[in-house]
C-alpha cells in the first residue's frame, strides 16, 4: 500500500503496487543490493534511517531520506512501514 504522497513522489499509482514489493519498482538495478540489505535489516527488527537515491517511474532519480520500521502485531513482525522524503533540493544546496 502507499499514500498519495508516495504516488506523487515516485509517479506510481497505488493500484500498480498493491501486493508487490516496492523495491522492484523504485530500487532496481544498481540499487537492488542496498535495498535488499535495508529490507533485511528492518525484517530483523531494526529501525533504519538513511539518505539514498531511488528511481521514479519515468526513470529519473530522486534523492530521498528513508525512515523504515518493522510493523509488529502481537510481537511478530508482519510488515514494514517506510517513509520516503524527497531531499533533492537539500542535497543540491549542500553541494553549493
SSE order, one letter for each helix or strand: HHHHEEEH
User: Quick one: how many beta strands?
Assistant: 3
Helix content: 25-40%
Characterize the largest beta sheet: strand count, sense, and whether it forms a barrel.
3 strands, antiparallel
Q: Give the overall form.
A: globular
Poorly predicted runs are none
Distance between the termini: 37 Å
Helix-strand category: alpha+beta
Task: Give an overview in words.
With about 100 residues, this protein is of the alpha+beta class. About 35% of the residues lie in helices and about 35% in strands. The chain is built from 5 helices and 3 strands. It has helices spanning about 5-10, 15, 25, 30-45, 90-95; strands at about 50-55, 60-75, 75-85. It has a 3-stranded antiparallel sheet, with helices on both faces. Strand 1 (about 50-55) and strand 2 (about 60-75) form a beta hairpin. The N and C termini lie far apart (about 35 Å). The relative contact order is 0.16. The mean pLDDT is about 95.
